[in-house]
Each structure stands twice: as structure tokens, then as C-alpha cells.
Amino acid sequence: MEPVVIDIENITKVYVMGEETVHALRGVSLQIRRNEYLAIMGPSGSGKSTLMNMLGCLDTPSSGRYFFNGKDVSAMDDDELAAIRNHEIGFVFQTFNLLPRSTSLRNVELPLIYAGLDPEIREEKAANALRDVGLGDRLRHKPNELSGGQRQRVAIARALVNDPSIILADEPTGNLDSKTGEEIMQLLENLYQNGHTIILVTHEPDIAHHARRTVFLRDGLIESDAANAQQPEIERLAVT
Amino acid sequence: MKRLIYEFSESWKIAVAQMQSNKTRSMLTALGVIIGIVAVTLMGTAITGIQTGFDKSMSILGDDVLYVSQFPWARVNDWWNYRDRREIKTEYAEPLNRMIEATPNSNLLLAVPTSNIVKNVKRGDNQVTGIFIQGTTADYPLISVVDFNDGRFFNELETKGAANVCLLGYDVADALFPGESPVGKEVQISGQQFRVLGVGARQGSFLGLFSLDSIVIVPLPTFKKFFSAKAESDVRVKVRDKTKLEAAKGELTGLMRRVRGLPPEKKDDFNINEQQAFKSTLDPVKNSIAIAGLFITGLSLFVGAIGIMNITFVSVKERTKEIGTRKALGARRRTILLQFLIESTALCIVGGLIGLTLAYAMCFGIGKAFPSFPVEFSFGLVLVGMFVSVMTGLISGFAPAWSASRLDPVTALRYE
Asked: Which of A176, A202, B25, B325 pairs as cysteine with A97 (C-beta 3.0–4.6 A)?
């Protein structure tokens, strides 16, 4: 059995929006082990985004506990959370969120700068990460010189570069056409095959199907949590 | 520590990239700082110029000369206590010199009398008005700071004989004898012909204060013969060691009391003045000019700072999503704070450098166009200018940078 990376116990999140109190999460418990490929699904308003923010250490729960690699992150302050995000979590966003005026290399270097690595090491690691996603020839290109799929690959390289414990992908194909989207999903599949832990947040069943396990949220609670049926064609593609 | 250095250099790179991609906006914002720095710097040069001018004017008095005068130079509030004082007579110089010589280890060196009056000086149809005519003895060059390179000073014989000879200040000579040497030629004062023996070296003047360039010096007996009515006299005493000025003053006071024949119960009815006394009356004036000037020009810098603050707020707003992304990737509050502080500071540094360059050019231009106008551009001013620029950047950038560093990453990431 692989060790548990994420262990959340009965977390809730309550927002106060003006007069209204919104219970985004009403008590969610979840365990994610290393080298899992998990999809979080749910309609809008189900608490899916809130859960993702919790998992990504961007936000802290109103109640309940969250252990990341055994560390209690539910009581950490902003800077401690920033350090966890920097070292343990690789984010892939729907809108890529690249710095528009920086080259691919500089974009991928960013987490390493915040980690305080030396410039030579930074550049080498960033270049390697870009090669790993198939962009070895696009190191000096700026985002506006790249296609959507290439941009998302840069973002994935950026998520990988710090060798994080989990990769958190929020609708990674949401802004891509289906063919490019499929390529990105293939890239994530490869990462999973290479031992990475991937959490995919999506509302598209087709995309969620790439994962091995799906957690379905509704009204701030987990409605279902089950392994996906095996998909032989993906396995076959992955081997090639 | 290493991490901080990398964050620092990264922030500089971002700041430069940011300025390059928003050239117009950055230039306009920097313009506020440029104007502010130019104003403050020019004011600074003017103030140092005034300071130098004052000091130069003061130095004409000599820092090792005591002036025995009827009234104090410093302003007094009880003038009625002074009005009955007896005049200072030029004859005091003689007994003073005798007593100085008789005193072993005297702090005083030499007493020279002078007598002053304002007259017009003519040469043919040319006339200069309001000239100080000063009567003195052949010892005068020993206590004066003026050099008489062109020609010579009058000698003992000419003094005793009350000869009609004179020395012209630089400006007087220049006005009456443009482009020629006045030595050996004649000028008229109050209808009397005077032969010019020499011309003083140029002193320069400031705000018309004590310029030795516009005086005419004649032998004291000659002076008495023609101008004694309404003339004011004093006795100037050179001090042996200017570090012992107070002791010298005390000694001179004692000597003067003897000369005046004052009984012990009577107060001094004369004043021993020196350069310092003048400075202490003029310093407050000079300082208030400086403070008022810096305050007014400082306002323009303040307006520039508000511009910087405004544009940094805009920049934070525009790049909210970028801030969110950076935070998601592990940027701490400090990192974001530093980034925006450096952006605002970089703008101010660019503005400061341009401003200082402009101010330097202006100073140079003013110096060329109006040589008498006291402007002085110094290296210290550059340091102060750059320091002010950096501080402006830090202070005006702080509020927006702080708000950026406090942004909630979730909200920032969702911002469109």
C-alpha cells in the first residue's frame, strides 16, 4: 500500500456573503495515497472548487483537520501555506496562468526562485521539465508565441519542476479544443504512469474518466467515491 | 538569505520588464518625480549657493579681525541704551597700538583705523553712485583680505602727507575704466581729483552685501580733509591667533576702556564686533529662506509621489491574477511586497536620475548665463537626490504593495 499523502477529516467551509451564510463544504473526509489518479467531479455550487482550494492549500477549512504528508496544514499561516504550495503542490490551471511577458523557461523557473535555488540549477531544472513535456525547442518562446496546448504544457512543466507530492489540475482542458485536450490528458496519464499523484478537478465526465478514481460532490458533501472502470485503450496508448 | 537575494533580483527584473512594457505610463508617472527632483535639487543648489555667497561675503570681514564700533552689529531690542554712546574715533588706533606693543604675549597684533562715507565717483562724464569711500592708513593691507595686484597701496608718506591718491575696488575700476588700466589716471570725488594707485582684486558679491568691489580707499588724513562730516569710523584690530578670539576680545575690551577712560562702575560704551556676530543675525534669515524654499519645492515632489502611489495601485489591480498565480506557486507575502515596492522604487530612481541630469544641465546653464547667480551643484546633492528618490518610491509604493501582499490567493486567482 502506498503512503497517504492527503488526509482530510470532516472539513467544513463556511463563507459569509453579506447577509447570507454559505456552507460550501459540510463535512468532507477524504484520503489520497501516493500515485493515485483522482478526479473530483460535481455540478457548479457543489463545493468542488472550495475543496480544490483546500487541497491546494490556498485556503484553510472552517473546521476539521487536513494532514498533508502527516503535517497539519489546517492551522498554518499564509507564509507556511505558501511554502507547502511551493514544495508539495504543482498547480495546473484552466487558463494556464503564465506570465505573459516571460519566456517558457522563466515561467517554469518561477517556483524555483521562490524556493531559493541557484540560477544555474534553476535553469537546468526548468529546461529539463520543459523537455519532459515535449517543449525542449520552445525554451525562449513567450506565451503569445505558443499554441494553447503548448501553453498548458508549459504550465504542466511549471507544476512539475519542484518535484511536488501532488499535481492539482483544475479543468486543465477547459480552454483547449478536444484534440489538444486529449494530448494534455495523455501527458497527465504519462505523469501518472511515472509515479506522480494527480488530482483532477472537472465537470466533464469524459475527462474524469481518465482518472482511476472519481469523487463526486453534491451540496458540499461527497456523494460517491469509487474506482473507475479500467480503460484498456488508455493503457494501450500509455505503453507506446 | 539567498532566497531573499534571488527574490530581490527577480523583482528588479520584473520592475524593468514592467516599465518596458508600459513605456508611456511609466514615463508620465516618472515625470512627476522628475519635476519634483528638479525643483528640490535646484532649490538645494540655490541654498548652497546662498550659503557660499554669505560665507564669501563674511570672509571679506576677515575671521581674525575684531571691529571696534559704536554699536553692535547684531540687532538689539534695547536701542535706547545705545543711542547716547560716544563715537569711535580713528585716533584710538594709536594708543591701542602702543598698549598692544607694551603688553607681553598680547593676543592682539595691530590696530588700523577706518572711516567710511558714501559718495559718488566720477571720471569725466562717467559716474558711479553710492560708493563707499574708506579712509585708512598704510597698514590696511595687513588686515584686509583684498589683494592689490594691479598697482600698489599708498605708503606711509602719502598717508602722512594727505595725498590725493586712491585705490579702486574692482567694479568701480571696471565701470569708470572699461577695458583699460586706471593706474596713474585720475578720478573725481566730491570735486577733488584723486590719482589712482591701484585696483583691488575681484571679490565678487552676493545680494549687494559688503562688496569690496565697490569701494574706494583713500589715506585717512586725506579723508578727514574732505569727507569728515557724517563719516563713521571704527578701529579694526587683527588677532594673533584666531582660535583665541574670545581672549583677544577680552583684552581689547580692557584696552578700549582705558582709551575711553571709563571708570569701573560704567558699562562699555562701545562694541567689539566680529564676523561671527553678523553670521548669527543672518543665519535665521538664511535658514527660513531655505526651509520655505524646500517646503514649497517639496510639495511638487509630494505630488509626484502621489502619482507613483496611484500607478502602483493600478498595477496591483491589473495584475491581481498574476499575484494569485505567484502566490499559488509559493510566493510569500514578503515576496509580493518586495516586488511592488521595487517597482515603485525603480520608477522613482529612473525619475530621480533624469531629474538630477536635468537639474545639472539647468545649473550649468544658469551658471553660464548669470555668473553672479549663486548655484552650486555638488556630489552631495546627487546623493541626497537619489536618497530622496528611493525614499519617495518606498513610501509611495508601500500602501499598494502592502495591499497586494495581503491578497487572498483564492480571490486573486479568480479575479478577471
From this structure: B325
